[in-house]
Amino acid sequence: MHFISILVDMGLGKTIQSIASMSVYHDEWPLLILTPSSARYHWAAEFNNWLGSGSTINNKKDTSDKPDYPTSDNEKSDSCEEEDDAIIEPKKPMRLLKESEIHVMVAGKEKVFPTRDTRIVICTYGLATSLVESGKIHVGLFKCAIVDER
Q1: Which domains does the chain have, with CATH numbers?
Q2: Of 84, 87, 90, 124, which is most buried by a Cβ count within 10 Å?
């Protein structure tokens, strides 16, 4: 499981740092967010703000088809001292989230994944305990998690 450790001082942008860090692992989602009940809707709003399909921050069209890494030996920098046999291509960028892919759990009777498209599950600590006890959340269900300590 991937956990990201973020500083605990207020006002440093921990939520944004956590979202950005976990977006690197988007291929390994679904992502679990454990948070106090007072912050669960804040997390949903921040995911929509930063990674949502309606986001004004990330919803920019890239008109260039050119990759931002060298594609041939001719394009490599002259400062490279060693010859690489292969170029490691960057990870495929994360596609932006639909609101329906973010699920804020409010009751233990709900399904953890209400739709097969659910990519983020936001759950309070108290609810998580009962979901673990009932077997709805178990080891291996999530590979990535953010634990909010507000």
Answers
A1: 1-6+15-51+100-150 (3.40.50.300)
A2: 124
